[in-house]
Design a protein that fits this description.
With 143 residues, the chain is mostly helical. It contains 7 helices and 3 strands, in the order ααβααβαβαα.
């Protein structure tokens, strides 16, 4: 279970930071729609650490033109974090417009019922809730 519990979210987190610091978002058009599973792993939690490193150790941190926070509108994450506090961190960090409903289907650890963390969140307003449950995916898929 270690692979499912920590490995997949860690790989997701590393993918986001590699794309940012490697300058990928500087080279691909903003029209390219990218989303990451597992709530982006621990990316939202560690964003402050990445920001600090980017500003203080540019010689070691990567080639991106902007600090990590400059790319938050270039990708989305799913809502599969299983905990309202984690969902709130995502919304507080990335914005409700960058979080889409996810399920982890067909994997056995997926959220059941799908969307329950979003539904029971007491900090989301109805506009945010609707965006996460439906609107952001419709926009992402150009429906």
């Amino acid at each position: 279970m270690a692979r499912w519990l920590t490995g997949m979210p860690a790989e997701t987190h590393l993918s986001i930071i590699a794309m940012i610091l490697g300058g990928v978002f500087d080279r691909v058009p903003p029209s390219l729609r990218i989303t990451f599973a597992h709530g982006g792993g621990s990316f939202a939690f560690w964003l402050g650490r990445f920001e600090n490193a980017w500003h203080r150790r540019r010689d070691l941190i990567g080639v991106s033109e902007l600090p990590p926070s400059g790319y938050l509108d270039r990708f989305s994450v799913d809502s599969v974090v299983f905990d309202p506090a984690a969902l709130h961190l995502l919304v507080d960090t990335l914005g409700a417009s960058q979080v889409m409903l996810g399920s982890d289907y067909p994997y056995p650890l997926g959220e059941r019922p799908v969307g329950s963390v979003v539904e029971r969140s007491d900090r989301l307003d109805e506009t945010q809730r609707t965006a996460i449950l439906r609107g952001n995916a419709e926009r992402f898929l150009a429906l």
